[in-house]
TrEMBL record:
Keywords: DNA-binding, Transcription, Transcription regulation. One of its GO terms (molecular function) is sequence-specific DNA binding. SMART domains: HTH_ARAC. SUPFAM superfamilies: Homeodomain-like. This is AraC-like DNA-binding protein. It comes from the Bacteria. Residues 203-301 form the HTH araC/xylS-type domain.
Length: 320
């Protein structure tokens, strides 16, 4: 199923949605911030706002329950509110839950929550390629699950109940999943892994490659599973995925290899055999071509970085 494959990819690229800030305000307001993370998301719990950022021709109108994913943008401006008087400038405060959300009332306030999407390097390459500069998910067209996730997150942020920090982390993860599900349903996806996972005609071939990545799949086998000719299958796959079928298979194998090297102590030779390579050297050459370094160097570097990250203090790079 598509959802199973999406979950599998999420696990491989270590997708995590992390809340980083927010505010509640009444009357006219504007908030500006510099963005340093590759992927950010902005959720409008209540009220209306206009979102501006680099790379889009005109501001995007956000309504209650809307979420925007910002892909590799450098700055963000949100403007909203109604009524007379000067426009109040909101200065986002790093950290979550934000003090600007204390006492928020979604019935009368404009409420904005912001977060970031954390991924490993392989995940950044996949998701950055699969999303436009700004992906706008409209609550009016989204499933109830998205609105429910957003409001449950808001409730945890403002209720200050026992265990709320843990609940906020879990709801942030579920919110991100629902945002991407809704975006897949609403948007015309560019060629890439998100789009190919949703293609009904290609799904049988994807099922084969994901279920047995170490098998020596040929174009004829994959085309037959999709009930298509070799030529039609190859053309459709390249159009939808952005790469030929066997290139996709090789990249999938490399994602599996990175997880195995990162999380386990499997020998490189055994991993090469499991993933369908005739020799350790052939696997190492393919891995270096795709990842940029040898399997052992990758394992040592990533584990060193993970050790540093576990001991480093957590800092919020932005107040939204």
């Amino acid at each position: 199923m598509v959802t199973d494959q999406l979950s599998e990819v999420f696990d491989l690229v270590e997708v995590r949605g992390m809340m980083s800030g927010g505010f509640a305000v009444r009357g006219p307001w504007v908030a500006r911030t510099v963005l340093s993370e590759p992927l950010k998301f902005i959720a409008l719990v209540s009220g209306r706002a206009r979102l501006a950022t680099d790379g889009i021709e005109s501001p995007i109108e956000l309504g209650p329950g809307d979420v925007a994913i910002l892909n590799n943008r450098s700055w963000l401006e949100l403007e909203g509110g109604t009524g007379d008087g000067p426009r109040r400038e909101i200065v986002p405060v790093p950290g979550f839950p934000s003090p600007h959300l204390v006492g928020a009332d979604s019935d009368v306030d404009d409420v904005v929550m912001g977060g970031r999407i954390d991924l490993n390097p392989a995940g950044q390459a996949l998701l950055l390629q699969a999303l436009p500069p700004v992906g706008h998910v409209r609550a009016s067209a989204a499933a109830n699950n998205l609105r429910g996730s957003l409001y449950r997150l808001f409730d945890e942020v403002t209720s200050n109940r026992l265990g709320s920090a843990f609940a906020i982390r879990q709801h942030s993860q579920l919110l991100l999943l629902e945002v991407l599900r809704a975006y897949i349903d609403q948007a015309e996806l560019p060629p890439g892994w998100l789009r190919v996972l949703t293609d009904e005609r290609l799904r049988p071939a994807l099922n084969l490659m994901h279920a047995e990545p170490g098998k020596s799949w040929g174009l004829e086998d994959l085309a037959r599973s999709a009930a298509m000719s070799r030529t039609s299958f190859a053309e459709r796959f390249r159009t939808v995925a952005g790469v030929p079928p066997l290139t996709y298979l090789n990249r999938w194998r490399m994602l599996l290899a990175q997880r195995a090297l990162r999380d386990g102590d499997v020998r490189v030779g055994s991993l090469a055999s499991d993933l369908g390579y005739g020799s350790e050297s052939a696997f190492s050459t393919a891995f270096k071509r795709e990842v940029g370094e040898s399997p052992l160097r990758y394992r040592h570097r990533v584990r060193d970085e993970m050790s540093v990250d576990m001991n480093a203090p957590v800092e919020a790079a932005s107040g939204l």
